[in-house]
Design a protein that fits this description.
The protein is of the alpha+beta class. The chain has three domains: 112 residues, PAS domain (Beta-Lactamase), CATH 3.30.450; 88 residues; 146 residues, Heat Shock Protein 90 (2-Layer Sandwich), CATH 3.30.565. 48% of the residues lie in helices and 21% in strands. The protein contains ten helices and ten strands. Strand 9 and strand 10 form a beta hairpin. The two termini are 57 Å apart.
Amino acid sequence: MEATFKLTEQNYRYLFEHANDAMWVHDMDGNIIDANQADEIISGYSRDELIGCNAARFLTQESLDLAREVRRKLLSGEELVQPYEQRLVRKDGTIRIVNIVTSPVIIDGEAKGFLHVARDVTEERRLHENMRFYVQRITQAQEDERKRLARELHDDVAPSLLIVIQRLNALISGSRSKLSMPLKSSLEELRTEATEALDNLHRYAQDLRPRILDDLGLIPALEWMTEQLAREQMIDARVEVTGTEQGLLPEVTLLLFRIAQEALNNIRRHARASRVVINLEFETDRVKMVVKDNGKGFNMPARAEDLVSMGKLGILGMFERARLAGGSLGIHSKLDQGTQVITEVPLPTIGLPLSPAQPPEP
């Protein structure tokens, strides 16, 4: 036997009043008709103060413009992504950030007003921004340490190794008649090992922080990396630039370089590609970089967080770097169909998120 029940108006009223999320209803002119207890907490106004007030009173100009756009879309039947974010002005003048779901109130087939359900995410956002600030600082500290280590390897360790190699050369070539064959052979092996060590040291220093990036900029650094890849893997690798090249702030130059570096490292280790193209596209309002290969590809998870369980921490790091710079990163890949890593950074805000002027709030 099926159990049936019907919610009475009293039941609905109880749910409305005691909901954890703020709820309010206003007419087509924006005048608030009803509000619940949670709305009193978010707004700082009592229910009596809220009723009859126009909702525009609690919105910044930017939020008011968004509210009008939401209203237009709902009434015209256009697609609206919900929940959406709004900033509400409290009675004390402070701003609360809320996620809102809005729906029209339809009576007899006609829109009579709008119902809003809002959740306060101010503290959650503040915590997120604080974490972001510290991640930015850690990332910058890592880059500073990379730069220091690369400089010390290049300026301090490499010259010492070079001197050892030169002295071995002099010893071998200047004392041929005096050296026994076993000793000469040992010295030549030592020279070969020292030369390989010097080559490896130069490569490690370049991987840590290539001087070409600081001295000549992003495009030469990308060309240097693709030339390395082509030489090592015997594949067609190149850089293409479209649009008018614009000067980028150092933070974004480094961001795009590191993402390209990780993408090329993944190609080197896993892709089995025969062709790689890095396309750098400059537009009036953004810079876009696409790293594309024709390798074996892989199946991307539905969520970026799932990359951790797959062991693809490098790819997750690319997502994080793009996010910290206020940009976006997308990866399109399918088995046997290659991979594209697409990074976009808006030009008006380039570099700013990596150098916040203010520390996080306590």
